[in-house]
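Teaching assistant here, posting this on the class forum so everyone can see the example we discussed in section. The complex has three components, and the goal was to see what a joint structure prediction looks like when all of them are supplied at once.
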Amino acid sequence: MAGLFRGSTVVTAIVAVALGAGAATWATRTTDQATRPAGPRTTAGKPDFGGVWQTVNEAQWDLQAHAARPAVVTQRGVYDYDYARVPAAPVLALGAAGGVPGSLGVVQGDGQIPYTPEALAVKQQNGENWIDRDPELKCYLPGIPRAMYMPYPFTIVQGTDKIHMTFAFSNAARVIHMNAVEGPPDDTYMGHSVGRWEGDTLVVDVRNFNGKNWFDRAGNHHSDALHLVERFTPLGPDAIRYDVTIEDPKVFTRPWTISMPLYRRLEPNATVLDYNCIDFAEEFMYGNLRKTPLVTHWEGETMIVDITRKIPPGDKLHEWYRR
Amino acid sequence: MARRILEALGVAVVMMALAVFLQDEASGQTPVPSGSGGANAAKAGPAPTTPWGQPDLQGIWLDEFDTPFERPAQNADKEFFTDEERTARDERAIADAGRNERAGLGSAQDVAGAYNAVFTSAKPTGRRTSLVVDPPNGRIPGLTPETQERNRIDQEFRLALLQNTSTCKNAAPGCRGGKYGPPSPRLDETAPFYNTQRMNRHNGPEDQSMGDRCMLGTTPDFNGFRRIVQGPRLVAMGVDTGQGQGYQRVVYLSGSHPPKTVQLRHGDSRGRFEGQTLVVETTNFSQTFPYRGSSENLILVERFTRLNAKTLEYSATLTDPTVWTAPWTVTQELTAQNDEQNRIYYEPRCHEGNYGLPSLLVGARLDDKAFRAGTGPNPASHDTATCVNELPAAREN
Amino acid sequence: MNIKRAIGVALAVAGLAGSAVPLVAHHAFNAEFDANKPVSFSGAVTKVEWINPHVWIHMDVQIPGGKTENWGFEAGTPSVLFRRGFAKTSLMPGTKIRVDGYQAKDGTHRANGRDLTFADGKKLFMGSSGTGAPYELSRPGVDTDRK
């Protein structure tokens, strides 16, 4: 009896050390024919990823491992400790509904994002200026990989030589070309995706980004030199392992990888309802340009919130929309 | 034994009835495409099938011809143009300098011309005299009395906003139905209905047209490029239309429409194959995105039939008894476009590049400021709505 | 103001609007740009944003007094040009062009590119080989310089 306990303690200790890196690291898995996961297949024998999918994790807040935080934008609290900050004014009224859940992170390896020093400074400024800079708040096309792990569902339609994904968020879309096509005439938000099969894994090469997107709400960013290699591997009929190798020589000192499962929405009649947010974002973006201000004041039982708008001067007005 | 024979007979009767029923359905549902494929049919290969046995609708599709939407009343019985008429229309389009024709320097018309005609496109005239094929006179059926009244109230408001402008002073077409006068007391009223058109006021984004707000693309769309990607249970249609006003639709080949309270910009689409035709029913349209005034009561039934390798026949029937006195149908032939060239820029990033909207709101605020300071005219006296003095029809989407 | 001319332009636009594609400006240019502030510049392209709904061409212009200013000019949609085979490399920084337009009411260095030409007067983006998108009508002097 005692021997049994001792053994299990040792096993537990070994397991704990192995997982100690922080991020959810996948156990090495070989996909050989004998253990091919069950799931729908195309007539060509390849996995059929068609259906409604969604990611369920905290990557949209911050790709890296982090403790739960009071809000996306915070200010110094009573103490100067990082762990004792309080929500900043724009999000204070949301209370605990405005907080950021903790996460083991999705960045593989040492969990670090290998920024150059200049790019790291930009990331930190992005985080502090989230309200004014995050393209998501303006309902701009979210880019890849961000669209894949935003908290909204998306459809995958797997055709004979194209794979079409439509995202609920702003009705964004991407087409993965499985046949040869010329590149796009100009750079894009959602990238230009070219795919091929390696066994049961769909490998997608994504380029031609315009550099205007972020990876998450923490200010992680990239340039127009972003290049992704995605791998979609079935984990059974209702889950896909999604790995992305990210490189951008203008921003990162080496390639790095994120990894996470995508889950099939299993309820009957699973349907993607578009989150068409352009008019949701108009008061946010253009409220300062109304003849008569519209959203200025809110009063609850415990709090009064007053909003004063600023108009960035001259060309800065237009720069705000470019971010 | 007798019972068995009877049972077998019963089954046979049912099977016969079923066979007859299906045949009726097929012949009733699949319209005989008039002039199917035209010149394309002679050279194009047969209609392909997907590896899993459905008619293959995939590709990039475009109506390569310019066809009037409705037929003028005097052409009611004339379903097709003659070759001479087509040539004459094409020659007029080729000779038209469009926006390259400048108006007087410093005139509102010249500003409204905006940019060179090279940014515009002209297509050759098609065979048909209208896209509307039913009713047989090629015109959309009449509006219900409620909709006519609604349009009248809406138009009255827009004309009030133009009252003090030179458009009305000069009785230009843009002021048709209106009159000239001092700035209207209705100037700061909320629009009588949710506004989707251009109007002569810029108090905020809601005073702008859906195009100005980068929300112009609606379903159905008869203008744009459509990329169809088809799987066994889902069909995706990416539409590129207007100036980056495109969008995506997904047709589910299973399931059912959501409850009426769920309203969607492009509705909810459920499809099934009937013989060689994909029949799609779309409902649950949003009141924010009407199509010619029809939204939450619209039932849209579309039919997609691959006629041959290069041609897709597309037909759309619109039914909304609260707006039109009868259903009506549009039919188009779409031609396959080159996929490899990838010249069609599908990313509909109008909103992301919409510097024009904040810019014109700032312009309007500066006009207000100058007027208050006594250094500028009353903004109500300027027409910033009607492009070259033509007010868009209230029903146009 | 020449009413006849204005209506002539209106009818021309309406005639083209018989095509299924609406050809009016994406937004009311009169609300954004000031008819009382016409501008006319020559200069070198510094950047082109091939974006929707309007292409923006940025240019260094020499203004009287020797200073250089950077201006942005709002033109039409790139979608039509892309279909004809133009791409982001079709107008590179350094190219010398001329622009006539009207300055934005907000007083920034922004105008609409009412008329965009090269120094020799040829309009920007006219396809000299007249290839065009295969289904289009080829309009001499408008989208092709082939007669």
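For the discussion questions: The domain at 32-118 of chain C is CATH 2.40.50.140 (OB fold (Dihydrolipoamide Acetyltransferase, E2P)). DSSP finds three helices and five strands in chain C. Think about how each of these relates to the inputs above.
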